[in-house]
C-alpha cells in the first residue's frame, strides 16, 4: 500500500537570534544594536550619540584619576578632587578619618587596587613611622581575596623618629604611594611567595634592595616629587634630632635602605612621564 504524502512548504521569515551572553568579543554598542535590531541609519545614529553622551557623563564623574603629568606639589589637589576620587577608590577600604583625603588621593595612582581590601590603621607605637603587611591568613588566600594592613604609627611617648602627621600632605602622599607599591608587589605573589618574602626580611642586604626598588616603583607611578618631599622631611627631622642630642630610633630609614633625594631626582630626570 503506497501512501503519497505531499510535502507542504512554508514561507518562514528568518529570525536573527542574538544570545544574551555573546561568545565573541564585540563592543557593547554593537551588541545592543544587534539586540534591538537598529537597522535604520537615523535610529543607529541617535543610539550611538546617546551612548557617547552617557560615556562622557561617566568619564566626567571620575575625570581626575591621576595627573597627566606629575605635579611637584599636590596639596591643593588632595582636597579639590577628594569627593570625586572617593567614589572610585574608597570601596573595600577602611580608612583612618584624619588621613582620608591623602589616602584616597594616593590610591588614585593605583587603579589595580580599586577592589583590594586594605585597612589603614593608626597605632600608638614607637616601632616606626608607617608599615604595610598582609593580614594573618593571607598566605592561604588568592591575591584577590587577601586583606592588607597599613599601620601609621603615632607614638604618644617622647618622639624618637619624625612623625607621619607632621610631614604635610605632599610628603604623606609620597610615602603612602611607597606603601601601596608594597601591596601591588604582595598581590603578585603566591602564598609560598609571601612566606619566602617574610623569610628574606631577615637579610639586611635584601631589605635594602627591596625598599630601594619600591621607591623606584613609586617614582614610576608619578609620585617622585612627593617622595622627595617625604625624604626631605625625614632628613631634616633626623638632623634636628641629632643637633639636639635626642635619641634616634634604631631603624633610622636612611643610608642605603631608601633612595636619597639625589637618587630620586636622578631617576625623575630619566623617567618619561616627568619630561
Q: What does this 3D model show about the protein?
A:
- The chain has 275 residues and is α/β, with parallel strands linked by helices.
- It has 9 helices and 4 strands, in the order ααααβαβββαααα.
- The protein has a 4-stranded mixed sheet with strand order 1-2-4-3, with helices on one face.
- β1 (93-94), α5 and β2 (117-123) form a beta-alpha-beta unit.
- α5 crosses α6 (168-187), α6 (168-187) runs antiparallel to α8 (204-243) and α8 crosses α9 (261-270).
- The longest helix is centred in the last third of the chain and has 40 residues, at 204-243.
- The chain is globular and about 45 Å long.
Write the layout of secondary structure elements.
Blueprint: H1 28-36, H2 41-61, H3 75-80, H4 82-89, E1 93-94, H5 100-107, E2 117-123, E3 130-134, E4 147-153, H6 168-187, H7 191-200, H8 204-243, H9 261-270
Parallel strand pairs: 1-2, 2-4
Antiparallel strand pairs: 3-4
Helix pairs in contact: 4-5, 5-6, 6-8, 8-9
Which regions have little confidence, pLDDT < 50, spanning 5+ residues? 1-39, 51-64, 249-254
Question: What is the beta-strand fraction?
Answer: 5-15%
Structural class: alpha/beta
Element order, helices and strands?
HHHHEHEEEHHHH
Give the integer mean of the pLDDT values.
Answer: 79
Tally the beta strands: 4
Largest sheet: 4 strands, mixed
Task: Estimate the global geometry from the Cα principal axes.
Answer: globular
Amino acid at each position: 500500500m503506497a501512501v503519497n504524502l505531499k510535502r507542504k512548504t512554508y514561507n518562514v521569515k528568518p529570525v536573527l537570534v542574538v544570545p544574551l551572553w555573546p561568545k565573541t568579543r564585540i563592543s557593547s554598542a554593537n551588541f545592543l544594536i544587534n539586540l534591538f535590531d537598529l537597522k535604520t541609519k537615523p535610529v543607529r545614529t541617535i543610539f550611538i550619540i546617546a551612548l557617547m553622551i552617557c560615556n562622557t557623563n561617566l568619564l566626567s564623574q571620575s575625570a581626575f584619576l591621576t595627573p597627566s603629568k606629575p605635579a611637584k606639589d599636590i596639596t591643593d589637589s588632595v582636597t579639590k578632587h577628594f569627593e570625586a576620587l572617593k567614589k572610585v577608590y574608597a570601596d573595600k577600604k577602611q580608612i583612618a578619618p584624619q588621613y582620608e583625603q591623602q589616602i584616597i588621593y594616593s590610591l588614585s595612582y593605583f587603579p589595580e587596587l580599586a577592589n583590594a581590601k586594605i585597612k589603614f590603621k593608626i597605632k600608638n607605637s614607637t616601632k616606626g613611622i608607617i608599615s604595610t603587611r598582609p593580614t594573618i591568613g593571607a598566605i592561604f588566600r588568592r591575591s584577590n581575596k587577601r586583606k592588607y594592613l597599613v599601620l601609621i604609627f603615632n607614638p604618644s611617648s617622647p618622639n624618637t623618629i619624625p612623625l607621619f602627621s607632621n610631614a604635610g600632605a605632599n610628603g604623606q602622599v609620597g610615602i603612602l604611594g611607597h606603601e601601596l607599591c608594597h601591596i601591588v608587589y604582595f598581590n603578585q605573589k603566591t602564598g609560598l611567595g609571601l612566606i619566602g618574602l617574610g623569610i628574606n626580611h631577615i637579610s639586611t642586604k635584601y631589605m635594602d634592595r627591596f625598599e630601594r626598588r619600591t621607591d623606584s616603583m613609586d617614582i614610576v607611578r608619578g609620585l617622585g616629587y612627593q617622595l622627595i618631599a617625604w625624604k626631605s622631611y625625614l632628613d631634616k627631622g633626623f638632623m634636628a634630632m641629632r643637633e639636639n642630642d635626642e635619641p634616634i630610633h634604631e631603624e633610622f630609614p636612611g643610608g642605603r635602605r631608601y633612595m636619597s633625594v639625589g637618587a630620586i631626582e636622578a631617576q625623575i630626570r630619566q623617567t618619561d612621564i616627568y619630561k
